[in-house]
Amino acid sequence: MHFLGQHEIHPGTVDLFNKNIYNRRMEKRVAHRIKVKLNAERISGNQKYGVFIENISEKGIHLITTHTKSHAEYFPGKDVDLKFYLHPGKPVNLRCKIRWACTKIPPNGMTDSIGLEIIDPPEQYIEFVKTLSL
To answer: What domains, with CATH codes, occur in the chain?
Structure first.
C-alpha cells in the first residue's frame, strides 16, 4: 500500500488524486463539457439500465450508474446505446463507444463512472448542446 499526501493508494488502483492523470485525460477532450443532470437509459439488447448523465459535449458524455456485477462489461472500446429525452415525447438515441470506465468510485463504492464518445451525434443532439452553451 502506498500513500500520496493523506490519501491511501491500494496496489492495482488508479490514483484519482494524481493531477497528472486527470490533466492528461482533460487534454484529450475534443470539446468543452457542460454540467447537466439528465436521466437516461443504457440499452443492451432488450434490457434497459437507468443511468445519470453528469456532463455532455457535442462529442462526449460522462455518466454514472449504480454498480452491479453486470457492469463488468464496461471496458474501453465497447459500444453502448443511450436513450434520453430532450423534450417530453422526443427521445434521442445515441450510439457511443466507451472511452474509459472507473468502477466502484469513492466515496462509497456504490457507483460506476463512465466516459463515452458519441459516434455520429444526431443534429438534434448537437443543437441541444449548443443551446446549453449560450
So the answer is: 1-30 (no CATH), 33-133 (2.40.10.220)
